[in-house]
Design goal:
cell membrane, mainly alpha, disordered C terminus, transmembrane helix, transmembrane, Probable membrane transporter protein, 10 helices, 78% helix, single chain
């Protein structure tokens, strides 16, 4: 086994384990793992490769929800189609942004994700919205916004997509989760293909990362059944980990301009 394969499989395993154990949020670690553990060639390659891995992971989970009847197909398809346009535009813009600046912005997104995971959630009573102009407009706006976020940073964006779908359509949580996975897979694939067109996807690492993610996800699902009573604690611990990684990225990003200033003196 090549030395570079082990970090890629292990990193994919970490993301898969967190997704299987916590049910979401784990893909936010894909980019920093690809950069700092696997050692891919730059921020853009990490984002493009991460987007492909996120897409594959979401598709595997989507299949399970679809079989269980958790998907509202018409809403899921429309949301995915509209949001994919946002992902394509945003990923095209992201390719033009300097890698260090893009990574710094990614660190800020990680802070938002970590804080969102720490924020207490309450189960809201919702009712399906009537299919009228207002509902369609809100759904389209949420789809474009979340698709753009996913495309720009190569992340799943489920922490925004799920509540966004609920607000727009009023569907129950389990249906929002199942339906969101089609959108996450579509956004990720569109972003990955856009990045691949510019040579920003490491296909070998992506396959290894996805393989590790499948193994880690299976282990996470098994562990989640045994640790279900401690899921809240695990979720908070993971949020702290995300915030720590975000802090490292932001500090590293702030150090780059200082280093450039010293070099030009």
């Amino acid at each position: 086994m090549e030395s570079g394969m082990i970090p890629a499989i292990a990193s994919g395993g970490v993301v898969g384990l967190s997704l299987g154990l916590l049910g979401g949020g784990g893909s936010i670690l894909a980019v920093p793992l690809l950069l700092y553990v696997v050692g891919v060639g730059g921020t853009h390659v990490a984002i493009g490769t991460s987007a492909l891995a996120v897409s594959a992971s979401a598709l595997v989970n989507f299949a399970g929800h679809a079989r269980a009847g958790h998907v509202w197909w018409r809403c899921a398809i429309v949301f995915a189609l509209i949001g994919t346009l946002g992902a394509l535009v945003a990923s095209s813009v992201a390719k033009l942004v300097d890698g260090e600046k893009l990574l710094f912005l990614f660190g800020l997104v990680m802070v938002a994700v970590g804080l969102a995971m720490l924020w207490p959630r309450r189960a809201a009573e919702v009712e399906p919205r009537p299919v009228d102009a207002r509902m369609c407009g809100v759904t389209a706006a949420v789809a474009l916004a979340t698709g753009a976020l996913s495309g720009f940073f190569g992340i799943g964006g489920g922490f925004l997509i799920v509540p966004g779908i609920i607000v727009a359509t009023g569907m129950p949580m389990i249906n929002a989760i199942g339906s969101s996975l089609l959108a996450i897979s579509s956004f990720g694939l569109a972003t990955a293909l856009n990045y691949a067109a510019s040579g920003f996807v490491d296909w070998t690492v992506a396959v290894e990362f996805i393989g590790g993610g499948i193994l880690g996800g299976a282990a996470g699902i098994v562990a989640s059944r045994r640790l279900s009573a401690r899921k809240g604690v695990l979720n908070r611990l993971f949020a702290v980990l995300v915030l720590c990684v975000a802090g490292y990225i932001l500090l590293k990003g702030m150090a780059v301009p200082d280093a450039l200033t010293e070099r030009h003196r």
